[in-house]
Design goal:
Elements (H helix, E strand, L loop, with lengths): L1 E2 L4 H12 L5 E4 L14 E4 L5 H4 L7 E3 L6 H6 L1 H22 L3 E7 L22 H20 L2 E7 L1 E3 L15 H9 L6 E4 L11 E2 L1 E3 H16 L34 E6 L5 E2 H12 L5 E4 L8 E2 L4 H7 L8 H20 L1
Parallel strand pairs: 1-2, 1-4, 2-3, 4-5, 5-6, 6-11, 7-10, 8-13, 9-14
Antiparallel strand pairs: 9-12
The structure holds nicotinamide-adenine-dinucleotide and galactose-uridine-5'-diphosphate.
InterPro entries: Epimerase_deHydtase, NAD(P)-bd_dom_sf, UDP_G4E
Protein name: UDP-glucose 4-epimerase
Pfam families: Epimerase (PF01370)
């Protein structure tokens, strides 16, 4: 079961799981997702995770849990909405999983659990001091899952994504309202916005704008597949693990580690990023090159709660899941998002 599989990341992961031969059921209430985003081949249940007990039974091997609200600014304005859905919804889901005997879970956590980091790159041992109710709600869920695993023998992985971007086939980013930098920059290139606002250029970074670690959504999907298989105990052995990346591109890097495994009762937490930071201005400049559009920018106030630099150490994901990103190139990430944005606009017009 993929909760939130009508949303951006969940739909890409669902598509990748189907390609790997898994049977996928999407549970989504379409509060921020799109029915047409659910990949062909997945069964679709329109419903809430709060009602998961109605849908889950022992025919499911595992749950990948993406369903959540994820707008940082909105969470500051309406924190209860975030605690209720993200934490309350997950409590109901965990109860339903226990009732149905489903004992494997992969959860969408976030770099927002760390807050302003003391040391870069950020490892999973870093202090967690979220700067928004969104980040706090996700950290609370990580604690919930850790307790559930220890008490009831769940095998669980929390994947802490840094800045997800790019697209995969027909699945891409269509948040409404959109708050993420790359899709907003591309809306300017499409003529849907006049300018992009740069939120502050007086940060302690080389060009004064915030630095982030952008990870391709297809790399993220492969990490979910590996996490799922590790919790199920079906992960490929080292000799088989160098499988092609989602679109058939050859993987980079050295031979992968021994068979990944997450045992019942264990809660593994892994950061997912490339370990490379790009500033807001570098992102905008790269998008200018990719799109051929001047993308005018204006300087705006800092956005409250934005740390200056967020860059991941994904060493744990490499060591425990045998995962390596294969699409770290920023221009490639933006080019895939650009292709998706143009295709979506053409579909709307026709
Ligand atoms: N996009 C990012 O950069 C990013 C970074 C870190 C973590 N995450 C996490 O990844 C997950 C997916 O993010 P996304 O960008 O795809 O968001 P999204 O809004 O596109 O997808 C979330 C999906 O969950 C569904 N949903 C929400 N509450 C639900 C509920 N109670 N019951 C059933 N369905 C519900 C929505 O309809 C939507 O389809 C979220 O948990 C988010 O916190 C995202
Ligand atoms: O119009 C914009 C939008 C964003 N930014 C800047 O661009 C950077 C990236 O902002 P995003 O909104 O794209 O992403 P965030 O870094 O705020 O947050 C994302 O990544 C976080 C971890 O890094 C969490 O996972 C969170 O859930 C997810 O939304 C930030 O410095 C932001 O200030 C702008 O300058 N102008």
């Amino acid at each position: 079961m993929v909760t939130g599989g009508a949303g951006y990341v969940g739909s890409v992961v669902a598509a990748h799981l189907l390609e790997a031969g898994h049977d996928v059921t999407v549970l989504d209430d379409l509060s921020t997702g799109h029915r047409e985003g659910v990949p062909a081949g997945a069964r679709f249940l329109e419903g809430r995770v709060q009602d998961a007990a109605r849908y889950l039974d022992s025919s499911y091997d595992a749950v990948l849990h993406f369903a959540a609200f994820s707008q940082v600014g909105e969470s500051v304005a309406d924190p209860a909405k975030y605690w209720r859905n993200n934490v309350g919804g997950t409590m109901d889901l965990l109860d339903a999983m226990r009732g149905a005997g489903v004992r494997a879970l992969v959860f969408s956590s976030t770099a927002a659990t760390y807050g302003e980091p003391a040391v870069t790159p950020i490892t999973e041992a870093a202090a967690t001091a979220p700067t928004s109710p969104y980040g706090a709600s996700k950290l609370a869920v990580d604690h919930l899952i850790g307790g559930e695993a220890a008490a009831h023998g769940l095998a669980a992985v929390s994947l802490r994504y840094f800045n997800v971007a790019g697209a995969y086939g027909d699945c891409g980013e269509r948040h409404d309202p959109e708050s993420h930098l790359i899709p907003l920059v591309l809306q300017v290139a499409q003529g849907r916005r006049e300018t992009i606002s740069v939120y502050g250029d007086d940060y302690p970074t080389p060009d004064g704008t915030c630095v982030r670690d952008y990870i391709h959504v297809a790399d993220l999907a492969e990490a979910h597949l590996r996490a799922l298989e590790a919790t199920l105990g079906t992960a490929p052995a080292a000799s088989e693990a160098a499988r092609p990346a989602p679109d058939g591109a050859a993987p980079e890097g050295e031979a992968l580690d021994a068979r990944p495994h997450v045992r019942p009762g264990e809660h593994l937490i892994c950061n997912l990023g490339n370990g490379n930071g790009f500033s807001v201005r570098e992102v905008i400049d790269t998008a200018r090159k990719v799109t051929g559009h001047p993308i005018p920018e204006i300087l705006a106030e800092r956005r409250p709660g934005d740390p200056a630099v967020l860059v991941a150490s994904a060493r744990t994901a490499a060591d425990r899941l045998g995962w390596r990103p294969t699409r770290a190139d920023l221009a490639g990430i933006i080019a895939d998002a650009w292709e998706f944005a143009r295709r979506t606009a053409r579909t709307k017009e026709s």
